[in-house]
Inverse folding.
């Protein structure tokens, strides 16, 4: 209350940056103090907000927030870092000096950057500028969780459709057009916890009669409203996709016209080389790179030119099934169409096999396949539930191929490539000159390192062993590696071994505690940010918003973007960063949009730019009058990948299930351990906030009452979960909807909550609560390097005594 009367109350429109949902919000500020955050129904993502968003004022004013740059004064092995406050000038000067020193001795690639996930933090505000700084400085190495979050749905599926069949925010891809879909599949995805805007859209869809298929080991979120809930065995999602495809192909429940016309299913594969038959093998005068298919009406071979997507002569009815003897320049060879080989692969995943490996009955399998086929158009969204496994790349390909059978891609009500407002790129690819290969690209040339995204496993190896080259300096923006990634013990050793490590964050955490310099960061409620398009729908994509700063940051905390621009100046890169003017960067981004920065500042609620979705874009003629097709090597949706064959991988996604079976003896570890995040926290964050922590004070492990009874465990008991890799502790919580062979943990536990008297824990302590100690980091996806975070074999036992 002011001296002269009631408090001055302001309402500030914006959006919450805490996770990928970016929910539209209205902040209430009383006498300059942020006191409340509510949804903004006028915003395309503002139907509601979650508990984390409502706890935003607690986050902003928490007493443990970092407020000044801190410099280490003691060796990293010392239990007391001897933190000393310093100025921003000194901090940034020392960081820039360390980067230059490392680059001079080892090359700029020896400086790596780390980043928290844009899906679960506000780093999306600044991530493009981090990329720009990397490109300008000359390093390809960004250490972040793409191998765990986004790889499968948004990148592995590019090897099928040429674009992500599931969108991953700024990386692009297709979004389910839920408002028009006939059947929505949620695969390892609980939008009630992960993207609440999708949850509300799905509920609206159910009201109009949309069918819902949920594939998840747990009955959570919308699973209890699903027409079909498939309680898949953790890690068996790829087998399930092939099993569903088998039913659909056997019963003719697939779009044969789409498969024949828009996939590489008709192309012939040689049985002697297991490669696509080339036209030059049949016709000596054929253009190099052309392929062949068989026209069943004319009983003749037709050439296919991938550069145009055209057959010559134009076929009447391309064969999808059968085995044929083809005369080549070197003699006869047996060939089969790609689709026939795919169908043969799917036959190996019979209903009996699916019942055994996926724990789903033949009746449920058929019901799901029938629902998908009869309720078209179909859309789907997949999330980390199917990604955190060591077979994730082939799983994602198998799911994408199943989806291709529906013919729904980019169709109304399918997974649609939504329009976007024209903008200028700011990540600085034009600044990168002769970058070294990213760490890990030699071992996995088709994986995340292909896009300069480095897994922690490979980063740790480079830091500790200098393989493939040394990394000696790390600049981190919020990535709590010891809690987010497998093998935290090795992670601690790697971070401790660096010559220099700087970490920017809101709070001190176990990863930041190993840094030489810790920088205080403004939260998303204390800084501006520009967002162009909100991804989930045409309406959301039309929205542009400059999020206002609600209140000032505490002490001397700065936005990540300011830190990046400050480093660029000290590195002599100011010219490449708009002379240090962040507004100039935003203006460049907006230049082709028709919306000015001044308009956005004057209207915090945002501006709309009318957009219209064009469907079936693959049918649209290009400048030559030829249908654009898909951005794959064959211009078709690819069941068969010559790109994979060329790197020594199978052309078709044969799934190893379970991938963990050979390393862990069943007698010692009879249960499958998976994990799921609670709705109250974003990964390893927010457990210090009393309003959230009091609702879940301790980590929990879900298990079936039958499983618990066999081990004399009661609901609420402290238990130890152990795998062949390590152990963690949590409180038992009964869940009778689980399969009794599955237990479900939670990752991200370390933080104390002093207000509630709850202590924190050391992420490397075997008697602590770090789920990632149980993960076998040596078992990794051969293409992406993804460890199996959600499918390890375990045993669970009662702990005697009070573990509180």
């Amino acid at each position: 209350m002011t001296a002269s009367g009631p408090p001055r109350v302001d309402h500030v429109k914006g959006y919450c940056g805490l996770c990928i949902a970016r929910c539209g919000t209205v902040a209430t500020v009383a006498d300059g103090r942020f006191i409340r955050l509510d949804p903004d129904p006028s915003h395309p993502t503002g139907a509601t907000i979650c508990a984390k968003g409502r706890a935003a004022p607690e986050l902003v004013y928490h007493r443990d927030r970092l407020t000044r740059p801190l410099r280490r004064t003691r060796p990293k092995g010392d239990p007391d870092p001897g933190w000393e406050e310093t100025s921003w000038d000194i901090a940034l000067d020392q960081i820039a000096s360390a980067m230059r020193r490392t680059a001079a001795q080892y090359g700029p690639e020896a400086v790596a950057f780390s980043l928290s996930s844009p899906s679960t933090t506000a780093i999306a505000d600044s991530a493009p500028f981090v990329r720009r700084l990397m490109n300008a400085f000359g390093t390809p190495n960004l250490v972040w969780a793409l191998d765990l979050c986004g790889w499968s749905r948004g990148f592995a599926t590019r090897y099928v459709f040429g674009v992500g069949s599931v969108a991953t925010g700024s990386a692009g891809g297709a979004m389910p057009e839920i408002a028009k879909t006939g059947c929505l599949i949620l695969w390892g995805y609980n939008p009630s916890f992960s993207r609440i805007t999708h949850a509300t859209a799905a509920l609206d869809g159910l009201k109009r009669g949309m069918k819902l298929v949920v594939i998840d080991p747990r009955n959570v979120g919308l699973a209890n409203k699903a027409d079909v809930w498939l309680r898949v065995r953790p890690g068996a999602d790829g087998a399930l996709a092939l099993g569903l495809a088998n039913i659909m192909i056997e019963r003719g429940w697939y779009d044969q016209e789409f498969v024949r016309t828009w996939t590489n299913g008709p192309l012939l594969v040689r049985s002697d080389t297991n490669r696509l038959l080339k036209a030059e093998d049949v016709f000596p005068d054929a253009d190099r790179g052309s392929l062949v298919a068989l026209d069943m009406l004319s009983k003749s071979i037709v050439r296919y030119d991938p550069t145009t997507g055209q057959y010559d002569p134009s076929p009447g009815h391309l064969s999808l099934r059968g085995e044929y003897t083809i005369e080549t320049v070197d003699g006869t060879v047996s060939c089969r169409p790609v689709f026939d080989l795919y169908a043969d692969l799917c036959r190996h995943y019979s209903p009996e096999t699916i019942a055994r490996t996926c724990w789903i009955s033949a009746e449920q399998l058929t019901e799901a396949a029938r629902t998908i086929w009869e309720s078209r158009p179909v859309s789907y969204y997949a999330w980390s539930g199917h990604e955190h496994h060591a077979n994730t790349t082939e799983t994602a390909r198998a799911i994408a191929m199943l989806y291709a059978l529906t013919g729904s891609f980019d169709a109304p009500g399918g997974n649609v490539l939504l329009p976007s407002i024209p903008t200028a790129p700011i990540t600085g690819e034009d600044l990168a000159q002769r970058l070294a290969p990213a760490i890990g690209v030699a071992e996995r040339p088709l994986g995340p390192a292909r896009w300069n995204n480095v897994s922690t496993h490979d980063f740790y190896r480079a830091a500790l062993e200098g393989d493939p080259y040394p990394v000696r300096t790390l600049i981190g923006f919020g990535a709590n590696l010891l809690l987010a990634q497998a093998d935290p013990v090795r992670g601690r050793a790697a971070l401790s071994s660096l010559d220099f490590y700087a970490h920017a964050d809101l709070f001190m955490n176990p990863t930041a505690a190993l840094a030489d310099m810790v920088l205080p960061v403004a939260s998303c409620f204390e800084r501006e940010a520009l967002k162009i398009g909100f991804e989930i729908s045409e309406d959301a994509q039309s929205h542009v918003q400059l999020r206002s700063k609600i209140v000032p940051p505490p002490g001397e905390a700065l936005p990540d973007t300011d830190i990046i621009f400050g480093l660029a100046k000290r590195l002599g890169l100011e010219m490449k960063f708009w002379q240090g003017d962040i507004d100039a960067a935003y203006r460049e981004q907006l230049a082709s949009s028709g919306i000015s920065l001044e308009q956005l500042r004057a209207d915090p609620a945002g501006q709309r730019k009318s957009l219209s979705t064009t469907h079936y874009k693959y049918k649209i003629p290009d400048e030559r009058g030829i249908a654009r097709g898909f951005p794959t090597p064959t211009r078709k949706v690819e069941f068969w990948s010559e790109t994979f064959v060329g790197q020594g991988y199978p052309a078709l996604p044969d799934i190893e299930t379970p991938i963990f079976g050979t390393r862990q003896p069943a007698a010692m570890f009879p249960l499958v351990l998976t994990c799921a995040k609670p709705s109250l926290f974003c990964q390893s964050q927010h457990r210090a906030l009393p309003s959230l922590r009091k609702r879940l004070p301790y980590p929990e492990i879900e298990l079936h009452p039958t499983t618990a009874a066999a081990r004399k465990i009661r609901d609420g008991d402290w238990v130890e979960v152990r795998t062949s890799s390590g152990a963690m502790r949590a409180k038992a919580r009964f869940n009778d909807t689980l399969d009794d062979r599955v237990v479900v943990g939670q990752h991200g536990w370390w933080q104390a909550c002093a207000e509630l008297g709850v202590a924190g824990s050391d992420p490397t302590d075997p008697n602590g609560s770090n789920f990632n100690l149980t993960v076998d980091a040596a078992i990794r996806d051969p293409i992406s390097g993804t460890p199996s975070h959600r499918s390890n074999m375990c045993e669970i036992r009662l702990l005697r005594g009070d573990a509180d």
Q: What stands out?
A: Residues 704 and 740 are 5 Å apart (CA to CA). The mean pLDDT is 95. The first strand starts at residue 9 and ends at 15.
